[in-house]
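Researcher: Good morning. I'm working through a list of sequences from a screen, and I'd like to move beyond sequence-only analysis. For each chain I'm collecting a predicted structure so we can compare shapes side by side. This is the next one on the list. No need for commentary yet; just the structure.
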Amino acid sequence: MESHPDQGALFRIDLPLAEVNQADITGPSTDKAEVGAIIGLVEGQNEYRILVVEDQPENQLLLAKLMESVGFSCKVAGNGAEGIALFQTWQPHFIWMDRQMPIMDGLEATKRIRELPGGREVVIVAVTASAFLEQRSELLEAGMNDFVRKPYRFNEIYDCLAKHLGVRYVYEGAPEQTPPIAPLTPDMLAGLPASAREELKNALESLEPERIANAIVLATAQDPQLRKTLAYLADNFDYPAILKALPS
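Model: Good morning. C-alpha cells for this chain:
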C-alpha cells in the first residue's frame, strides 16, 4: 500500500494464478437468465395438457399460473381421487402430483393411474416439501418419472417440462425464432394449376425476388401453409429446392 495525505492511497495485490490453457476456456454463456424470463412457447409444437393435483389453494394457483402464462392448457384437482377422474376424462400429457394430500395421496393416485388406459404414457412428476432425497426411490417405485421440491423455483418447473416433454420456450429479449416448416415435396405442388406452376418456375429461373414473391402469392392463394414454406425457401435463396419439387 502507498498512501499520501490529500492524494489518496494505492493498493497492490499479487495473486498466485496459473496461466490458463486454451482448451479450458469455455465459449459464450448460454444461460437462460441472460436472455430474460420465459414468455411463451415456440410455435409449431404440440398443444400439451397439464394437470395439477395439489390440495393447497396457493400452490394450485401458482402452478396453474405458471402453466397458463406460457401457453399450456391446465386443469387442477384437489386430491388424488379427483386427479384420477380428470385423467380419465381429460387425458393430460403431464401431471404435477403432490406427495401428501387428503382422501388419496399422490403415491396411491400415481399407482392407480398407471393401471388405466394411457396411464403408462403420461408423465407424472411428484412435488414434495420433503428435504430427504432418500424418498426419491419411494416416488419412483410408485411410478413417478421425476420429482421437484417445494418451494417451487420457476426455472426448475420449466426445465422439468422441457426435459420430459421436449418443449421449447420463447425468452424475453431473445431473437424471434422461426417455427419449423414442413419439407417441400412434389405432392405439395402437384395440386397447383399448371399455369401457376409454370409462372413459379419461370420466376425462379429469372432470379428476380419480386417476381418470385408475386408468383408464390398467386400460386398459394388457397394454401397459407404452402405459402409459408415456399416463402421461407425463397427468402433463403433455396430456389433449387422449389424447382426440384415442381412436377415436370
